[in-house]
Design a protein that fits this description.
The protein has 175 residues and is of the alpha+beta class. It contains 6 helices and 8 strands; from the N terminus they run ββααααβββαβαββ. Helix 1 packs across helix 3.
């Protein structure tokens, strides 16, 4: 399964992508924008991350490669809600060298396409840290609506973080 946009090709991660994933999450610029990964991960953890199938981890995980070179520049995930099969959540991380160039928006759009097209969900959700306006802009460009600003969530270290919860889909107009 491969999805394409103007500049990116989205494909499932595999064990060969572990070095990239390890290097992506070695960047404190990246991990400070995340809830689930707060610091560097080992190569072994990166291998597990890349090889985990959706049935085992709950996420469909993808690498986003530049169409011109095939080089990975980002990862993205789609997680279907187990208690609400018509709802999925997306997440994404882009190498800092590629921030501000539209790649996050293209990646998020491909994740939405996978969620709505392949998985057939009617609602797509996302969560951004309140201190991450760039990711909020990505979601706004795609038509997401902020449902809850300043909500509280625990990160992977157990620290409370302020987040905004976003929605794209049939309930996006409700407040």
């Amino acid at each position: 399964m491969v999805l394409r946009s103007d500049h990116l090709e989205l494909r499932r991660l595999d064990g060969a992508d572990a070095k990239f994933v390890e290097s992506l999450y070695a960047s404190s610029q990246v991990t400070r924008t995340l809830l689930r990964i707060q610091g560097p991960i080992s190569l072994e953890e990166a291998h597990d991350f890349c090889r985990s199938r959706p049935a085992a981890c709950g996420d469909d995980r993808f690498g986003a490669a530049l169409r011109t070179s095939g080089d990975l520049i980002a990862v993205g995930s789609v997680r279907r809600h187990s208690d609400q099969p018509s709802v999925a959540a997306i997440g994404y991380s882009v190498l800092p060298a590629f921030w501000g160039q539209g790649f996050g928006t293209e990646l998020a759009a491909l994740l939405v396409e996978f969620a709505t097209g392949t998985l057939g969900v009617s609602e797509v959700r996302a969560t951004t840290l309140d201190g991450n306006p760039a990711s909020a802009r990505v979601l706004e460009k795609l038509g997401f609506t902020a449902l809850e600003v300043g909500a509280s969530e625990m990160d992977s270290r157990g620290d409370e973080r302020r987040v905004t919860r976003w929605l794209l889909g049939r309930c996006a107009r409700r407040r």
